[in-house]
Design brief:
Elements lengths: L2 H5 L13 H4 L9 E4 L5 H12 L3 E6 L2 H9 L4 E6 L5 H14 L3 E6 L11 E2 L2 E2 H17 L3 E10 L25 H23 L5 E6 L12 H10 L7 H4 L1 H8 L10 E3 L2 E2 L9 H17 L2
Parallel strand pairs: 1-2, 1-4, 2-3, 4-7, 7-8, 8-9
Antiparallel strand pairs: 5-6, 9-10
Helix pairs in contact: 5-6, 6-7, 6-11, 7-11
The structure holds NADP nicotinamide-adenine-dinucleotide phosphate.
C-alpha cells in the first residue's frame, strides 16, 4: 500500500485512496458474468483483469495485438479470453466487436481502460490528434457498436482522469481536433479525458429508463507505462513513488468498484475517484457540449470506413 493510502481517510462509500481492487471486490461473486477490459496488457488494465478473474468472471481482455493479449493471459490465472483491439485502427476495433458478436456474448460490463498520455509531439490518426482518437473516438466506436450486446443491467465504465481539468477553456476544441492549429501535450490529453467524461454523461442520459449505467473514473496517480514518453516525469515518479503515488492495486480499485459493487446498480452519469463520487470540472456538466461531442463523434466514426 502507498504511504498516502495509509494516511488518507476513507470516503462515504467506506473505501478510499488506499483501497485495492482486491479489497473492493471482496464478497462480490462474479461467476457467470462477462467483462470486457481494453488495454489489459499492462498497468491498471492487467490488474483489473486479474482481480475480476479472481472473483470468478470471464474476462475478454484486449491488447493491441492478439499476441500481446495472449501474453497477458499467461500472467493471470482464470477464465480470460484474449482479443485484439488496436484502438488506432478502426478495422481492428470493428473486428473485436464482430468476434464478440459472433460468440453471442452478452456483456455485464465494459471497462474502457486503454489510454495514452501527453505525447510530446503531435501525432495523428485519420487526421485527428492521436490522444483524442485513441482515448475517445476509438472507445466511442467500440462501446456504441457493443450497446446491443450489453445485458439488461450492464455497466459501462470509462477511464477519464483528473487531467480532464486541463482541457482547453472551450472544453472540446472542435476547430482543432487535428491538433494542427496548435498542440500542447497536456491540454490534448486533458481534452481527450474530458471527452471520455462527456461521453459518459451523454451515454448515461441515453440509457435513462433502462437498468444500464455509464460512469467515469479517475484512478489516481500511479506509476505505470503511461509515462513512457516523458523522461522527466518518469524520473520524478521514481522519487515520488511510493511516497505520494498509488500502487497499481490501489489504482485499479475505482474501476473495479464502479464495475462490480451491487450498491452502485442504479448510479449513472457520475465521476468517481478513490472509490467515491467526486467533483468534476464545471464544463464536464455542460449537457449541450456532451451532445455536440456525441454527434461529432458519430460523424467521425462514420467517415472511418
Ligand atoms: N496511471 C495514472 O496515473 C493514470 C491517471 C489518470 C488516468 N489514467 C488512465 O488510466 C488508464 C490506464 O492507464 P495505465 O496507467 O494503466 O497505463 P499503461 O500502463 O500505459 O496501460 C495502458 C494500456 O492501454 C493500451 N493501449 C495504449 N494505446 C493503445 C492502442 N492504440 N490500442 C490498444 N491498446 C492501447 C496499452 O497497450 P501497450 O502497452 O501495448 O501500449 C496498455 O495495455 C488510461 O486510460 C489512463 O488515461 C491513468
Amino acid at each position: 500500500m502507498s504511504i498516502l493510502g495509509l494516511i488518507k481517510p476513507k470516503g462515504p462509500s467506506g473505501y478510499g485512496y488506499g483501497t485495492t481492487a482486491e479489497v473492493v471486490t471482496e464478497g462480490v461473486a462474479l461467476k457467470g458474468r462477462d467483462f470486457l477490459v481494453t488495454g489489459s496488457t499492462a498497468g491498471l488494465g492487467l490488474e483489473t483483469v486479474r482481480v475480476l478473474a479472481q472473483r470468478g468472471a470471464r474476462v475478454f481482455a484486449t491488447g493491441r495485438t492478439k499476441q500481446k493479449a495472449m501474453a497477458a493471459r499467461e500472467r493471470v490465472p482464470g477464465v480470460i479470453v484474449p482479443l485484439e483491439c488496436e484502438l488506432g485502427d478502426p478495422a481492428s476495433v470493428r473486428a473485436c466487436v464482430a468476434s464478440l458478436k459472433a460468440e453471442g456474448v452478452k456483456l455485464d460490463a465494459i471497462i474502457a481502460n486503454a489510454g495514452i498520455m501527453a505525447l510530446p509531439e503531435l501525432k495523428q490518426a485519420y487526421g485527428y490528434e492521436l490522444q483524442f482518437f485513441t482515448n475517445h473516438i476509438a472507445h466511442f466506436l467500440l462501446i456504441t457498436e457493443l450497446l446491443s450486446e450489453l445485458k439488461e443491467d450492464a455497466r459501462v465504465v470509462v477511464l477519464s482522469s483528473a487531467a480532464h481539468k486541463r482541457a482547453p477553456k472551450v472544453g472540446i476544441d472542435f476547430d482543432n481536433l487535428s491538433g494542427a492549429r496548435g498542440y500542447n501535450p497536456w491540454q490534448a490529453y486533458g481534452q481527450s479525458k474530458l471527452a471520455n467524461l462527456l461521453f459518459v454523461k451523454e451515454l448515461a442520459k441515453r440509457l435513462q429508463g433502462s437498468a444500464k449505467t455509464a460512469n467515469a473514473v479517475h484512478p489516481g496517480v500511479i506509476k505505470t507505462g503511461l509515462t513512457r514518453d516523458m523522461k522527466a516525469l518518469r524520473a520524478a515518479f521514481v522519487v515520488a513513488s511510493p511516497l505520494v503515488l498509488k500502487s497499481i492495486p490501489e489504482g485499479a480499485a475505482t474501476q473495479c468498484y464502479v464495475a462490480t459493487r451491487p450498491e452502485l446498480a442504479s448510479v449513472s452519469g457520475e465521476y468517481f475517484a478513490d472509490c467515491n463520487v467526486a467533483e468534476s470540472s464545471a464544463i464536464s456538466h455542460d449537457a449541450a457540449l456532451a451532445t455536440r461531442l456525441w454527434e461529432e463523434s458519430e460523424r467521425i466514426v462514420g467517415t472511418l470506413g
